[in-house]
Each structure stands twice: as C-alpha cells, then as structure tokens.
Amino acid sequence: MAEWIDLIIRKREGEALEPEEISGFVEAVQREEVPVEQAAAFLMAVVIRGLDEQETTSFARAFLSSGQTLRFNEFTYPPIDLGETGGLGGKAAIIALPTAAVYGVKLPVVADRSLRHNGGLLDKFEAVPGFRTDLSLAEFQESVRSTGIAVIGQTMDLAPAEIRVNQLRANTGSLGGVSLTVAGLLARKAAAGTRGLVVEIACGSGGLAKNLAEAHSLADDLFAVGEYLGIRIGGCITERDNPLGHAIGDSLEMQEAIAVLKGEGPADVKEVAVNLAASLLVIGQLVADHAQGRNLAQEAIADGRALAKLKEFVTNQGGDGQALDNPEQLPRGQGRRDVVTQRSGYLKAIDGAALGDSWLALGGSRIRRGDSTDHRVGLWVHKKIGDKVERGDTLVTLHTSEKSKVDAAIESAEEAFLISPEPADKRRLILENFGRVR
Amino acid sequence: MAEWIDLIIRKREGEALEPEEISGFVEAVQREEVPVEQAAAFLMAVVIRGLDEQETTSFARAFLSSGQTLRFNEFTYPPIDLGETGGLGGKAAIIALPTAAVYGVKLPVVADRSLRHNGGLLDKFEAVPGFRTDLSLAEFQESVRSTGIAVIGQTMDLAPAEIRVNQLRANTGSLGGVSLTVAGLLARKAAAGTRGLVVEIACGSGGLAKNLAEAHSLADDLFAVGEYLGIRIGGCITERDNPLGHAIGDSLEMQEAIAVLKGEGPADVKEVAVNLAASLLVIGQLVADHAQGRNLAQEAIADGRALAKLKEFVTNQGGDGQALDNPEQLPRGQGRRDVVTQRSGYLKAIDGAALGDSWLALGGSRIRRGDSTDHRVGLWVHKKIGDKVERGDTLVTLHTSEKSKVDAAIESAEEAFLISPEPADKRRLILENFGRVR
Questions:
Q1: Which of B5, B47, B174 sits opposite A173 (nearest CB)?
Q2: Boundaries of every domain in chain A
Q3: B358, B377 in Cβ contact below 8 A?
Q4: How far, in Å, CA of A256 to CA of B282, rounded?
Q5: Phi and psi torsions of A203, nearest 5°
Q6: Which of A56, A70, A376, A426 could make an S-S bridge to A386, C-beta 3.0–4.6 Å?
Q7: For chains A and B, what is the number of CB pairs under 8 angstroms?
Q8: Which residues on chain A are in Cβ contact (under 8 Å) with B360?
C-alpha cells in the first residue's frame, strides 16, 4: 500500500515529477498494481496542482506505449487526424474530413463520444443508420487506404492505460484541467498512426476553453506534447459563445453538415469547415499555404466531390447512403417545442452551459462514459448573439423524444438567452489560426 | 458510483461545502457506502484546497457523532485533556498531567501513538513495563474518577469515522494540512468527555507548525472548532528548532520526565511542564490566573506530590512502579553511538526533520499507523542552539538496538547540526500562551 505514497505527497505539494516516475505510475495502473484509492488521490493531486510540459509529455508517452501503434508507412504524405475540443454544435469535422480527403489526405480518425456538453464525432456519424464504429484495426487501416477516411473510437488496443486512467478520473471527479486531457488525446491519436493533428479549440461559454488565455494554454500543451510524439499540430480557435450553425444533436448536426456540402447550410459552419480542411491540407503537406488550401476546399464543396467522398466513406463503414441523400430522413424524435421570447431587444449573450444542460436533459449526450444517448433529439438554435429579436420570436426549437425529459430541457433552454435593449456586437467567428497553418 | 462526484468536483474547484454535505459524506464513509477511490479523491481535494472554519467544525461534529460520547457529570469541574501537536522530545505532558491532577483536575486523556517525527504519549507511557493502554471505556472512566488521570488510545467506540478517514488519508498520501487534523483531534477528545483542552503547539523545524503564522492558524482552528464542541481551549506555542530537553525516544523521555519530577532534569522541560500544568489548572477553573497555577505546579513538583501522582496513575493502569523509582532500569537498547563534531564554533541550527529521520531509522517511531515501534531506542541530544562547541564534542548519542538500522540513523543525525564560527542567539522557549490562559 505504501509504495505510491511518497509520489502522491510530492505531487500534493506541487512538485514536478520525473519521467520515469510518471511512466512507472502509468505502467503500474495498467497492470492494476496501484490500489484504486491511491491512484485516485494521485490523479486528484495532478489535476489540482497541474502538470508542466515535461510531465504532460511523460504521461502521453506512457499512455502511448501501453498499447499498439499503427503505422501507415506506404503513404507518401503523413496521415492526419482532426480533433474538436468541446463546443456545442461542432459539426465542422463532418465536412472538413471528406473535403480534405478529396485531395488525398489520409485520415485515420480516432473520435470521441459525446460527454456532458461536448459533442462527439462518433455519435454524430452513428446517427446514420448502419454506420459501424467498431471496425477492427485491420479494417480501420484498410478503410483509410481505400477511401482516405476511417473513423473509430478508442479501443483497448490503442493507449489502453489512458482508458483506465480516464475511467478512474471520471469516477472520482478529477476530469478537470487540460494537461491530462491533452496527453490522452495525443496518445490516442498517435497510437492510430497519426503524424499530424488539426484541432479546433472551441472558446467561450459553450467550449472547453472559457477564454482566449485558456485556449492558448491548451494550444501550448498540444505543441509541447505533439513535438515530443512527432505529431505536427495546427488548427484554429473559434468563438463559441454562439453554438456553431443552428443544430445541436447528432441527427440535426449531420443534416446541417450535409446541407453545407450541398451548397446550402449556414455560413459559419462552412467557414469553420473550410478553415479546418485548409489546415488539414497544409499539415498534410499537399498545399503550400492556407489560402491555397481554402481555395481547394471551397472547390471540392462547390462541385460535390466532398459530399461524394462523405458518402463513399460513410457507406464503406456500413452507413445508409439513402439517409445522406435525404438527410431529413435521419432518425428524429417526434416532439417539437419552441422556446419563445417574451422580450424584444437584442440577443446579448447565450449561455452555452445552459444549452448543453438542455441537450443533456433531452438525452442527447451522456453524464458518464458508457451511458446511452439518443441521436434523435437536439436543439435548433434560431438566433445568434447580436440578432434583433421581437417578443414572440422563437429562440430555439427542441426536438424531443421522451416526454418525461422535456420540462427540464425547456427550463435550461429558457435560461440560456439574455436579451437586452442595447444593441450587442456580432462576434468574430475564427479568433485565430495557430501552428504550422498560421 | 456517481453519487459523490459533484461534491468532489466542487471541492476540487475550491468551493466551501455545506454542513449537511460534510456530515453526509462522513456518515457514508462510516457505513462504507463511499467507494474508496471516491473518498480518497475527495480527501485529497480537501487537503489541497483546505477547509474554512465552518467546514472544519462540520467534520469535527460528524466525526464526534459517529460513536459514543462519555460524560463525567458527577465532577464539579470540567474534565480536561492535554495535547501536544508534534515536536521532538515532547515529554512535558508526562509531568504536567500528574502535577495538575494533584489539585483535583480530572484528566480523561485520549493520546496518540508516535507517527513519523511526532512522538506519541501512548508509546511513552508504554515504555513502563506492564502499562496498559487498552482500558475499556468503563475502566477508563473509573480510573479518571479514582486517580484523576487515565490514558487510552482512540478506540473504535470514540469517533470511529475519524479513524476510517484517517486510515484512508494515511494510505493515500493526504495527511497534510491542519484542518482535518484539528477536527479529528477535537472530535476524539470530545468523545472521551473532555470539556477543555490544553495544547502545546510545537513550532519550528521539529514541530507540526513550521513558523509562528502556522502555529497561529492552528490555534485559530482549535478555537473555532472548540467553541462549537463546547471545549475550552488554551495552551502555549513553544520553540522547537531545539528538541525539548535532551531525550528523544520513549524510555529516554520517560526517564527525563521522572528526573524533572524528582527536582532534577533540564530546565526547559520543567518550564514547559509547569506552564502546561498551570494552563490545566486555569482551564479546569481551579485557579484564577496562570501565575497562581504556576506557583501551585512548582509546589507539587518540589514536594514530590506530582511524582507520587504519576506513580499512582501509572500503577493503576498496570505499570511497574519499580521502573518509576529506578528509571535507569526502563528497557533500553544496548548500543551507544556518539555523533562527534569535527568543527569548533557555535551550534547555529538543528534540523528537527533530520533528527526525526534518525529516530525513525532506529525504529523508535512509525512510518505508518499500525507499524511496531521500539521503546528502547532514542537520541540523547547534548547541545542546544547557541551552545559553544569544540572539535571532538559529542553532539548527540544514539541509543540503538538493531545493528542494521544504525548507519542510516547516524547519517541523518550527522546532517542535523549546523555549526558556524559566528555566535548564535539562544532561542526563547515559550513563544506565547494563548486562549483562556493568556
């Protein structure tokens, strides 16, 4: 029992730990040699005291070496992954991935599931009937080779120690802080053979980073760990006091992403998607600069190649192509409830956490990993910050399936909108690009 | 598994918790309804983030109500306990308790065992052959009534939730911080029927409080929780860059305390003991002021009544009275090793932690609760800060029993003494009295 106490005490007192101490801990957790109460106490101390870059890197390396690492040695260009760190309505990846794949970027994607206010790409694709996320590693590699994109969740083959650590953190209230999150994210990606990563950092009340300083700190951690693991990092920080687009929820978001790929859909979603696709092309070394990447991305969307690539990859993973042609047929709850404003004025602020709670209350996300979710429910947000609103306007429409969950969802949604008599500034969407794509 | 997560997260983020949340947690720990990993994570967050006075009080109340509470309703005066918070060589209680009992103070003492650098009164009394610390609660109460003093350790009848919490903290590296320590200390004392508590706060490199600010913070916590539990608080803060007296170790300390009771022994031990005994008389409402208490205490020592009371109480708990008459016969390891200085000059500093490590290495204290200790070993410190020393002088003599433990103990002891060519100031012994005895 005593073996780990000195390590725990030193982290409790805020000391930085040596690489071999961290790898020793992670290996012992993996072998189930650390009593859970000691592991939990240690992880709580880590989350409260934080990790420096070297410690974060040590965790990432230890996570990575706990499982298999895939290699795509036959590719001319480095395989790239795309990640979104939180953010309500973050469906730009659904568009950006096939857009970049049109030009030959290879995309072995290890995606997350929705958790609390964070939407997960895995759940969004699963809104398409038949879509399989349980590919074997051999199927995964073959799909990347054949269609350019494959999407799986983390399996016990890839960075399994990170799964154990994360389960323990989730069960003991220590999921806060970004360092372990970054270490885990990059370890999972690296294990799947990725050599580059484009990240959208959602910044604001609906994002993981609450402000620009937190977003920069997250980017710094990504750079530090990425450099060590040989993963090129790029991406953008996006404003997320507003949800992206109108749709929150798996089916609704898939529908909205398809609309953009058909030349319809909201401009903000397209803008972020084009920006991310351009970054994928730059990091993937297929274009010289971001402007060139944007042009290519817009072309592939305009001429339908991006939508065709989405259909190719989705059907390759078992998804129903018909549903992509007629996205209004994606599974949808039957209930509709409008939240209507009693005030006229300007929409001054949206509380992303309250919208996230509403979505969670409808059953669209999970409180804990392993919970079930409902792809059919969601929110359709009609107004953005800065919009003029009149008494009687609908602010958001809830798409519901279980009646017992509606009241709590409406209550949260009603609390999410602040209307003021003063005009409010519209927000800038892409706050900055960072990394090798700047 | 999820029940406690919100509470853990809120403490992780530094929020203050409500009394019923804390009592709910402590009760659930007691009923073994909190998964150990969640309890460990919560306690780590508590220790790092700290507790305010209300939270500390809530823990104390919850600990107290988890077991029995003894009552001594027949006594005219409130029963008092005496506590020492850390400090090497803290044997003043051995003298102060019988001195105060001479005048009728009733002393139901719940004492600690030695842990790391903190000596425990229970172990010191157990150096007397035959001394029983496992009295039943009925025997304990009867002994307080008949002799004025009884000493037991915490049993599973008294504040058992505190025992569980403390075991978990010890096993998971979260014993730091003073708030939970104070809550636990006062809950144990209150459970044994105490209505007043005199505390010696040892301050310096060999004490729990490293400086006066920490000592004051500890005193403030004692007052806050004491007021809530109806326990009058008083005591003193003593300088503990120096060990108290010469002796560190159970038999050696018992021998030194008896020497003081015989009118011999070092002046600093006597001074602290008289000071504490006076505080016991004040808190016990038997004298009007501290000066009067000091006079009575000195009288009881000078005329042998205090020594007689010690013998009465020790033999009442099964201890061998002969050993008290001839304390050089107390069990003692056979080995003697002197640490001799190679430098001449002035003793400028003593590193109490290094001396504590030396004692620990000899086997005199425990690394963990439940470990065994050796009453026979110890250190006899010959020099105090400010003393002039000549090359070849012995700084400390180690009393050893197991050869395999000697080298590490000598190494630590050698590191404990800083000798400088400059004269160093002697230290003030009693830094201040506090509470109702000031």
A1: B5
A2: 5-50, 80-327+431-435, 332-420
A3: no
A4: 79
A5: -125, 120
A6: A426
A7: 105
A8: none
CB-side neighbour CA atoms (13 Å) of A90: 36
ipTM over 0.90: no
> Are A37 and B5 a contacting pair at CB < 8 A?
no
Q: Please tell me the predicted confidence (pLDDT) of residue B425.
A: 86
Residue A394 touches partner B, C-beta closer than 8 Å: no
CATH of domain B80-327+431-435: 3.40.1030.10
B38 to chain A nearest CA, in Å?
5
Q: Do B49 and A49 touch (CB under 8 A)?
A: no
Rg, chain A, Cα only: 21
- CA angle A234–A237–A240, rounded 5-degree value: 150
In the structure encoding, which two tokens stand for residue A64, read together?
């990575």
Cα separation, A288 vs A417, whole angstroms: 43
CA distance B10 to B168: 20
Nearest CA in chain A to B48: A12
**Dihedrals phi, psi of A350, to nearest 5 degrees:** -120, 130
Q: What fold characterizes domain B5-50?
A: 1.20.970
Q: Measure the CA–CA gap between A289 and B32, rounded to whole angstroms.
A: 61
End-to-end CA distance of chain A: 50
- Asked if A210 has any chain B CB less than 8 Å from its own CB, the reply is no
Query: What is the per-residue pLDDT across A162-219, written as a single tens digit (0 to 9) for each?
Result: 999 999 998 999 987 788 989 999 999 999 999 999 999 999 886 778 899 999 989 9
Q: What is the pLDDT of residue B436?
A: 66
What is the Cα Rg of chain B in Å? Answer: 21
Chain A residues with CB under 8 Å of B15 CB are none
Q: How confident is the model at residue A1 (pLDDT cuts 50, 70, 90)?
A: very low
